[in-house]
Design a protein that fits this description.
Layout lengths: L1 H17 L4 E12 L4 E10 L8 E13 L4 E14 L6 E17 L2 E17 L7 E21 L6 E16 L7 E13 L4 E14 L4 E17 L16
Parallel strand pairs: 1-11
Antiparallel strand pairs: 1-2, 2-3, 3-4, 4-5, 5-6, 6-7, 7-8, 8-9, 9-10, 10-11
Length: 254
């Protein structure tokens, strides 16, 4: 099953390239830890190849936040993120973004199926080109709302440890934003993705996923379809001295 999935990813990547559609690779490290029954923290590092505008670019990002556990299935998070777009062939090589975010997330397991619902709010301060033919930039503020629904379940279990060795995962997330330089369109993007989660140890998992993004380009006044493959390394630590409650922890896509 694992080999068939990998071959499927290769086929999708080759098909996307042959059709000359934008294709990205996402590399992500996602770290989460519990410090007490109620408090924890999270951070992730992100690198994406081939930005959609400007076309000859790539993006790196870092995000961190504090987590408060309302109950075993519900948590809230708030934090800060930095995003930087590196541009080739332009006299201005960097565009920066500073972002504040807040989210609430619900995790459920029903009949062996893992379900995640997440609402995230973002306040974004972004450097943007004023025109596609100019290197002049301004800082635009946008408020963005995101809703994600994610499902997953086991495929193969390790007979020695009884842990799930391989599982499947799929998700859809829709984005709307409001603010400056949007050319009158509040739709931002929609992400649909699916793939496998490989267990590498007690606290570590690797997700290998195919993702399709329908992304609005306000400066160009068009919506672009983007194919991508995502590799995400998850680490979920429990640093509590005394473990009194056990929340539902499901590797969640960012």
């Amino acid at each position: 099953k694992f080999l068939i999935t990998i071959l499927g990813f290769c086929f999708l990547a080759t098909s996307a390239r042959s059709q000359q559609q934008p294709f990205q690779t996402w590399l992500t490290y996602n770290h989460q830890a519990r410090l007490s029954d109620k408090w924890g923290y999270t951070f992730d590092l992100n690198h994406r190849t081939l930005g959609t505008f400007p076309f000859n670019s790539f993006l790196s990002a870092a995000r961190a936040g504090g987590v408060y556990q309302l109950n075993n299935a519900l948590r809230v998070t708030a934090g800060y993120a930095w995003f930087g777009t590196i541009i080739n062939g332009r006299s201005r090589p960097w565009l920066h973004e500073n972002r504040l975010y807040q989210q609430i997330q619900q995790n459920k397991v029903r009949n062996g199926i893992q379900m995640v619902q997440r609402v995230r709010l973002e306040q974004r301060f972004r450097q943007q080109f004023k025109q596609s033919s100019s290197d002049d930039v301004n800082v635009a503020f946008t408020f963005r709302a995101r809703y994600m629904f994610q499902v997953g379940g086991p495929l193969i279990k390790n007979a020695k440890t009884s842990r799930t060795a391989l599982s499947w995962q799929a998700a859809n997330e829709i984005f709307f934003h409001f603010g400056e330089n949007l050319n009158g369109n509040n739709f931002d993007q929609n992400r649909t993705l699916a793939g496998v989660l490989i267990n590498l140890g007690k606290v570590t998992d690797l997700a290998v996923l195919y993702q399709f993004i329908a992304q609005r380009q306000p400066l160009r006044e068009t919506t672009v379809g983007i194919h991508s493959v995502r590799f995400t390394l998850f680490q979920n630590l429990d640093l509590r001295k005394a473990k009194k409650t056990q929340p539902i922890d499901i590797p969640t896509l960012d």
